[in-house]
Write a structure and sequence with these properties.
Layout: H1 3-17, E1 21-23, E2 31-36, H2 41-46, E3 56-60, H3 61-73, E4 79-89, E5 96-103, E6 107-108, H4 114-124, E7 133-141, H5 152-158, E8 167-173, E9 178-185, E10 190-193, E11 196-199, E12 211-213, E13 220-222, E14 226-228, H6 288-299, H7 325-334, E15 338-348, E16 351-360, E17 365-371, E18 376-386, H8 390-394, E19 401-402, E20 407-413, H9 418-427, H10 446-454, H11 460-474, H12 477-483
Parallel strand pairs: 1-4, 3-5, 3-11, 7-8, 12-14
Antiparallel strand pairs: 2-11, 2-13, 4-5, 4-6, 4-7, 8-9, 9-10, 15-16, 16-17, 17-18, 18-20, 19-20
Length: 492
C-alpha cells in the first residue's frame, strides 16, 4: 500500500472515530429553522433509507458570527477552513443530529483547488486528532449574487473525503454576501442545500420578541419571527426589544416586506416574501391606467391561448436557464403539462411580463412560469407527495405538511431540468392527484412584488392579496378545486 493510500485510510479512520455520539434532547425550542429558498431537493434526499446516513444540522450563533467576520475580512481572496462540533442523538425521538459550535482559522488558497487544499489540510493533521470535524467551509470573493449551482463542483470533489453527515459550507464575500450548507446525495450524484437550525443561547431568548439571528444569507428563509442583530463589543448578541414599529408595515398574516429604513425588520416568510424587496425596490408602481387595465384583464374569463409551435428538438430536450419562453412552454407541454391560465402584465412602459399557470392533472403537478417576451424569468414546480419517514415529514414547515395524511407540499425551482424533475417526482409513485396540503401560493410576477413593496400609500400585503384573489378566481375551477387553491382571506 502506498503512502498516499495509507494516509487516506488514516483520514477515513479518524473521521469515522469522530462518530462518538452523546445523548442530548433536540434543542429545537431555542433555535431558528432555516430552509433553502426555492430549493427542495433536501426533501427528495430525505426519502432515502435512513436519510442516506445524514443528520439534522444545528449551528450555534457564535459560529455563524465568526463566519460573518471571516467573510468581512476575506473580501479579496479565497479561503477555507474546518467546521467543528459534536454529534448527538435525541433520547426521546432517536433523531441523530450534529452541532457546529466553532470554526478553524481560515487558510488562504494558494493555487490549489479548494477540495485539494482541504485534503492536504486533513493529511497534515495526522499527528493530531480530527475528532469534532463536522465539515469544512470554502469562501470565494464575488461582487455578484451567488450563481445558481455555486459550489456543487466543490462538494463533488470533496465527497470521498467526507462522511454523509459532514457538510460543505460555500460562501461568497462582496457586495452581496451569501452562503449555503451543502450535502451530497450519492444516489443522484447531486449536491443540495441543506436546511439547518440556528442555535440560540437561552439567555438570548425573550418572550413575545423576535428571535435574534446572525443569518444574513438570501439563500435561506424561515417561518420564525426574527430580527437581524450585530455583535456587541463583548462578542455577545445584542437582543432586540419587542418590535414596536408601525402596524402599517406589518401584514395581518405576519409576513413583512423588507425595507431599507426604519426599525430592524421582522421577517416571517411565505412562498415569496423573501423576494418582496428585491433589487427593483426603487421602481415606481404601475400607473392608474395600467392598474385598471390589468385588473379588468384579471377579472375577465381567460381564454385558452393558442398552442405554441414546439421547437424541432423538444422531443428529448430538457429546459435550461437560457431557454426562450416558447421553447420552455413547448417542452412543458411535451412532458404532459396543459396551460390552465395566462396573465399578461404591463410591468413598466414598453415592458411586459407573462405569468403562465400549467398543470399535469394526472400526476397532480402544478407549474408556474414567469417570463418576459424573450425568456423565462423564473419557474416553480409545486406538488403534494406522501412520505412515511417521520423526519422527512417534520422537515417541512407546519403549513406545508399534513401530519395525519403524511403528506407534504413541495415547491422547487424548475427553470433548469423541468422534465427530469417531473419524471423524478412521478417515479416515486407517491404524488397526490388530489392535494392534501395547500399553503397560499402567490400568482404574482416580480414587477408586481416590487411595485407593491415600493408603494408607501397602501399596505403592500393587502395589494398583493387582492391581486392574488383575482388571479386564483380566473384559474379554472377544475384546477383550483383539485389542488385546494384558495385566495388569501380578506381582512376583516
Amino acid at each position: 500500500m502506498d503512502a498516499t493510500s495509507q494516509r487516506r485510510r488514516c483520514i477515513s479512520y479518524r473521521i469515522s472515530m469522530s462518530e462518538r455520539v452523546a445523548r442530548r434532547p433536540l434543542p429545537v425550542s431555542r433555535s431558528i429553522h432555516w430552509m433553502p429558498a426555492r430549493e427542495t431537493h433536501h426533501i427528495i434526499a430525505s426519502l432515502q433509507q435512513g436519510n442516506g446516513g445524514r443528520r439534522q444540522l444545528f449551528v450555534q450563533q457564535k459560529a455563524l458570527a465568526t463566519l460573518r467576520e471571516v467573510g468581512r475580512q476575506s473580501l479579496h481572496r479565497p479561503v477555507f477552513g474546518a467546521l467543528r462540533g459534536n454529534l448527538f442523538e435525541c433520547p426521546a425521538t432517536a433523531v441523530s443530529y450534529l452541532v457546529i459550535d466553532s470554526v478553524s482559522d481560515p487558510a488562504e488558497l494558494r493555487g490549489d483547488a479548494p477540495a485539494v487544499a482541504f485534503r492536504s489540510a486533513l493529511e497534515s493533521s495526522l499527528g493530531s486528532t480530527t475528532d469534532g470535524t463536522m465539515g469544512w467551509f470554502y469562501l470565494a470573493p464575488m461582487d455578484e449574487a451567488m450563481p445558481r449551482g455555486f459550489g456543487q463542483d466543490v462538494v463533488a470533489a470533496a465527497a470521498k473525503l467526507l462522511r454523509p453527515w459532514q457538510t460543505t459550507l460555500v460562501m461568497t464575500a462582496g457586495a452581496r454576501p451569501d452562503g449555503a450548507f451543502l450535502l451530497w446525495d450519492a444516489v443522484a450524484s447531486h449536491a443540495f442545500r441543506s436546511p439547518f437550525y440556528e442555535l440560540l443561547e437561552e439567555r438570548d431568548m425573550r418572550p413575545d420578541a423576535p428571535k435574534p439571528t446572525q443569518m444574513v444569507w438570501p439563500s435561506y428563509a424561515t417561518g420564525d419571527l426574527v430580527a437581524a442583530v450585530p455583535l456587541s463589543d463583548a462578542n455577545r448578541l445584542e437582543v432586540p426589544r419587542p418590535d414596536t414599529s408601525s402596524p402599517s408595515d406589518q401584514s395581518p398574516k405576519g409576513w413583512t416586506f423588507w425595507r431599507g429604513r426604519g426599525s430592524p425588520a421582522r421577517l416571517s416568510t411565505s412562498d415569496r416574501a423573501d423576494e418582496a424587496a428585491a433589487g427593483r425596490s426603487q421602481a415606481s408602481p404601475p400607473t392608474d391606467g395600467a392598474a385598471k387595465r390589468q385588473a379588468s384583464a384579471d377579472i375577465a374569463p381567460k381564454q385558452r391561448p393558442a398552442a405554441s409551435q414546439p421547437q424541432p428538438n423538444v422531443d428529448y430536450a430538457d429546459t435550461a436557464e437560457d431557454n426562450s419562453i416558447e421553447r420552455y412552454i413547448a417542452i412543458a407541454r411535451r412532458d404532459g403539462f396543459h396551460i390552465a391560465a395566462k396573465f399578461d402584465v404591463e410591468a413598466w412602459p414598453n415592458e411586459r411580463e407573462i405569468l403562465w399557470v400549467l398543470q399535469d392533472p394526472y400526476a397532480g403537478l402544478l407549474l408556474t412560469v414567469t417570463s418576459n417576451d424573450a425568456r423565462v424569468l423564473e419557474a416553480s414546480l409545486h406538488y403534494n407527495i406522501h412520505v412515511t419517514d417521520p423526519e422527512a415529514l417534520q422537515s417541512a414547515f407546519s403549513e406545508h405538511r399534513n401530519d395525519e395524511a403524511q403528506v407534504i407540499y413541495v415547491r422547487e425551482s424548475a427553470i433548469n431540468e423541468l422534465r427530469a424533475r417531473s419524471e423524478r417526482a412521478r417515479a416515486t409513485g407517491e404524488l397526490q392527484r388530489e392535494w392534501k396540503v395547500t399553503p397560499t401560493i402567490y400568482f404574482v410576477t416580480p414587477s408586481e412584488w416590487a411595485a407593491a413593496a415600493s408603494d408607501d400609500t397602501t399596505g403592500p400585503a393587502r395589494t398583493i392579496d387582492a391581486l392574488n384573489r383575482r388571479r386564483i378566481a380566473a384559474i379554472p375551477d377544475s384546477v383550483t378545486s383539485r389542488l385546494g387553491l384558495r385566495p388569501p382571506e380578506e381582512d376583516q
